[in-house]
Amino acid sequence: SKVTSLGQLEMTWRSRVHFHPLLVRVLHKARLRYYGKPEKKTDMPYQAYFEVADGSGMVSMVLWNSLCPEWYHSMKVGTVLLLEQYAIKPSYPFKTQPTPGDSQMKRFATIEISLNVRDPPSKISIIPEELVKPEWGLPEVKYRFITRSELDALPNNHSCDVIGLVTFVGRVERARKKEHGEDFWLYRWAHAIDGTSDQPFILELFATSQPDVFEHIHPMTYLVCTQMRVVRDLTENPSSTVYLTTSNESQIFITGCHKGQPYTKDTKVKNFIQWTKTQNEADQMKKAVMGGYYPFPRPPDNFLKY
Asked: What is the pTM of this model?
């Protein structure tokens, strides 16, 4: 069938009602958002943002309501989609923006693709990777992996991906979303090492839309975290309190989830796997810790400073 491109859509969308099909690859996936309110009568008040791209550039795509439980878990980073009967809307200006792995990629920031059950009823097809043709010109998923030795030189709020061997994972804690609200964020602290530094990555992992992974992070698993943000305490000693926290587009993977993921081709991931082959499992197990209270950033050593 006749397929259009994101570049053509951006130029012509206001003058059209019906659009040709689109072939795109998912490059980023945000957490599932529930927007239900007692006074509103939406059956399934869910929304999920994806960043999708073809050869002409990248655009936001939003999945609405009952399409979320049906499609959210099938649309992984790297998945190729054929979209038909979608709507084009002006983009929502306040959404979070992931940092693309390919800094040269053009971003269409004025529009977003809207997928709904009706008006019009969107048709979504997943194209298996073995049927994807090179002539379609779809971009590959690219990452920004860093090693622990590179972390100390990175600025506050820098976006990166990491892989490491988990040596510590804390209990699940919770923080209020708003000061007097009833809603909580769930999070846990973890340490992961990659052999490039004596220090571990300190990771603040918020529960994303992957409860099966979040609950099963344990010592000795290979942990991959994408779209993490560097957090530095710029007031105190900057090197002592650097850690990484999840963003809205973070994805977390543990041993058992890695097969077939696009990051397995990344050079730094391959280097990490080579390093793990040189490690003695029993020695690492002795150092591993699980659970307990983890105050971070650390309070000062004496009460007067505190």
From this structure: 0.90
Give the H or E element holding residue 148.
Answer: helix 148-151
Residues 130 and 203 in one domain: no
Q: Verify that 166 and 95 share a domain, yes or no.
A: no
293 shares its domain with 176: yes
In Å, how far are 118, 241, 261 from 162, measured between CA atoms?
40, 18, 14
Judge if 174 and 215 occupy the same domain: yes
Q: Which tokens sit at 77?
A: 């980073």
Half-sphere exposure of 160 (CA within 13 A, CB side): 23
Could you give the number of structural domains in the chain? 2
Question: pLDDT tens for residues 196-251?
Answer: 999 999 999 999 888 889 999 999 999 999 999 999 876 665 456 799 999 999 99
| Secondary structure in 3-state letters for 94-105 | CCCCCCCCCCCC
Residue 12 lies in a domain: yes
Yes or no: say if 212 and 257 are a contact pair by the CB < 8 Å rule: no
Find tokens 């209270």 and name the residue. 293
CB burial class (10 A; 0-12, 13-18, 19+) of residue 176? exposed
The residues near 70 (Cβ < 8 Å, ≥ 6 apart) are none
CATH number for the domain spanning 10: value is 2.40.50.140
Ranges of residues in the chain whose predicted pLDDT is under 50: 238
Which residue range(s) make up the domain with 242? 148-299
181 and 274, same domain (yes or no): yes
Strand 243-246 to 173-176 pairing: unpaired
Check whether residue 47 and residue 186 sit in a common domain.
no
HEC string of 33-70 equals: EECCCCCCCCCCCEEEEEEEEECCEEEEEEEECCHHHH
* Residue 281 falls inside a structural domain: yes
CA distance 53 to 232: 32
Query: Which residues have C-beta within 8 Å of that of residue 44, sequence separation ≥ 6?
Result: 65, 66, 68, 69
DSSP 145: B
